[in-house]
UniProtKB/TrEMBL annotation:
Topology relative to the membrane: Single-pass membrane protein
Identification of the protein by name: phospholipid:diacylglycerol acyltransferase
Pfam families: LCAT
Keyword Zinc among UniProt keywords: no
Leader sequence residues: none
Organism: Gossypium raimondii
Class in the EC hierarchy, top level: transferase
Enzyme Commission number(s): 2.3.1.158
Catalysis: reaction(s): a glycerophospholipid + a 1,2-diacyl-sn-glycerol = a monoacylglycerophospholipid + a triacyl-sn-glycerol
Family recorded in the similarity comment: Belongs to the AB hydrolase superfamily. Lipase family.
Compartmental location: Membrane
Gene Ontology terms: biological process: triglyceride biosynthetic process
Any Gene Ontology CC annotation: membrane
Domain of life the protein comes from: Eukaryota
Length: 526
């Protein structure tokens, strides 16, 4: 499954390709549905093979490289044009899920951009062919979970497994070297870098603030009407204000650093630090992860910076994995555009970042963000240095760090979301960034948020549940399926009832100071 570490494409002599057709993603494994339930329900209202198309793509590749190697973007364009032409000119409804949400953002820019970089469809292609884009579990602004994966091949589940069986995943049992192999493989997948948090401190917060400041760990469940949504901006939980997590510190070395006032943290800048001698001998080269080139001095420099916000995380990844990030930053970008008319933003590396590109000129199109809430979702991490054993990953989540008052458990700070994508990433663009006419949505495409509060299965007969808000299981959520079917049958967002919100997404969005008008800042000279 690994790709070439230099090109991000096929290794010599190995070709792995995505399956085509509806069977490409109906089930992940026997009995474990992904799209199957939704496909079956669409069939009940008349959809069939000739009116439904599964846009399968190789999710390991960077988005532009799916076109370079497989011409996937061209195939999606041709299939959408065929669906419109053979169905009386009726426009399509596109339903992306998870990373597919970012992939389709890239497609909408690619299809209208001139060849050879783009598909040459012209500036009105999306307006002519797309009725609605119904995004499910969309990580529009990335996920902190991606940082943990790239930094230490961990997430909460792996960290807990390490705590339950100390040393098992780190030991060279039967020469598996499990986490090192996972890291080596995943760092060859350029697509993983599409999930790095976007927008920097403007979106995710800094050392002393975050949009989710005051977040309560108590379960949310009451749906808010329009009046309650409007009142969010003025409402805060007074109990939470007494002690709040510093979510803007996405990585902290030590619980004390995560909680300390920023003025008390003594930091030594890691940028430009001399990495020193290799930390591992040549026997580790079969699981080379770039950490072996850092040396003890480089590892120490990373830890001595103490805490990392979204702004410094990209620099951190450049320091610990320069080869990976050289490939990744050729295909993806993580900032906020100052002037979207700048010619640099015509490059494909910006097309999947909603903060560095404009939506198409399609005022009749609708964009939905459908996602689950009510589940603890990874937002920030407490790390520690691991013992310097040969071939080991030098950093690990500190699973001894716990604090119920700040939603810290097993070294992971959690916020509201679907267990994978925090509410902030899934909801901000449709709540504020694209709401109405903004510089990111100049034609005023209508946007809607539909949240689904997680309810676990009532009994074993329900399997994964029919009211789940979890990132994948939501694909079997009856309320979500009903919404998708109604949109596919022609309903508008207003006919669905507009926004359906359980979280504090509107409140959190208002705390983000992001310029939405087209004015370009002018700085006076002296």
């Amino acid at each position: 499954m690994s790709l070439d570490n230099e090109t991000g494409l096929d290794p010599c002599g190995i070709r792995v390709r995505p399956v085509s057709g509806l069977v490409a993603a109906d089930y992940f494994a026997p009995g474990y549905f992904v799209w199957a339930v939704l496909i079956a329900n669409l069939a009940r209202i008349g959809y069939e093979d000739k009116t439904m198309y599964m846009a399968a793509y190789d999710w390991r590749l960077s988005f532009q490289n799916t076109e370079v190697r497989d011409q996937t973007l061209s195939r999606i364009k041709s299939n959408i044009e065929l669906l419109v032409a053979t169905n009386g000119g009726r426009k399509v409804v596109v339903i992306p899920h998870s990373m597919g949400v970012l992939y389709f953002l890239h497609f909408m820019k690619w299809v209208e951009a001139p060849a050879p970089m783009g598909g040459g469809g012209g500036p009105d292609w999306c307006s002519k062919h797309i009725k609605a884009v119904v995004n499910i579990g969309g990580p529009f602004l990335g996920v902190p979970k991606a940082i943990a994966g790239l930094f230490s091949a961990e997430a909460k589940d792996i960290a807990v497994a390490r705590a339950l069986a100390p040393g098992f995943l780190d030991n060279d049992i039967f020469q598996f070297q499990t986490l090192q192999h996972v890291m080596r493989m995943s760092r060859t997948w350029d697509s993983t870098m599409s999930m790095i948090p976007r927008g920097g401190n403007t979106i995710w917060g800094g050392l002393d603030w975050s949009p989710e400041e005051g977040n309560s760990c108590a379960k949310k469940g009451e749906k808010k009407n329009e009046t309650q949504i409007a009142d969010q901006a003025g409402s805060e939980n007074a109990v939470c204000k007494a002690k709040s997590a510093n979510y803007g510190r996405i990585i902290s070395f030590g619980k004390d650093v995560a909680e300390a006032p920023s003025s008390d943290i003594e930091r030594i800048d890691f940028r430009g630090a001399i990495k020193g001698h290799s930390a591992a001998n040549t026997t580790c080269r079969d699981v080379w992860t770039e950490y072996h080139d850092m040396g003890f001095a480089g590892i120490k420099a990373v830890a001595e910076y103490k805490t990392y916000t979204a702004d410094s995380l990209v620099d951190l990844l450049h320091f610990v994995a320069p080869k990976m990030m050289a490939r990744g930053t050729a295909h993806f970008s993580y900032g906020v555009a100052d002037n979207l008319d700048d010619p640099q933003y015509k490059h494909y590396k910006y097309w999947s970042n909603p903060l560095e590109t404009r939506l198409p000129n399609a005022p009749d199109m609708e964009i939905y963000s459908l996602y689950g809430v009510g589940l603890p979702t990874e937002r920030a991490y407490v790390y520690k240095l691991s013992p310097h054993a040969e071939c080991s990953i030098p950093f690990k989540i500190d699973t001894s760090a716990d604090d119920e008052d700040t939603c810290l458990r097993d070294g992971v700070y959690s916020v509201d979301g679907d267990e994978t994508v925090p509410v902030l990433s899934a909801g901000f663009m449709c709540a504020k960034g694209w709401r109405g006419k903004t510089r990111f949505n100049p034609s005023g495409i209508r946007t809607y948020i539909r949240e689904y509060n997680h309810l676990p299965p009532a009994n074993l007969l329900e399997g994964r549940g029919t009211l789940s808000g979890a990132h994948v299981d939501i694909m079997g959520n009856f309320a979500l399926i009903e919404d998708v079917i109604r949109i596919a049958a022609g309903a508008s967002g207003e006919e669905l009832g507009g926004d359906q919100v359980y979280s504090k997404i509107f409140n959190w969005s208002e705390k983000i100071n992001l310029r939405l008008d087209e004015e370009i800042p002018v700085h006076s000279s002296r």
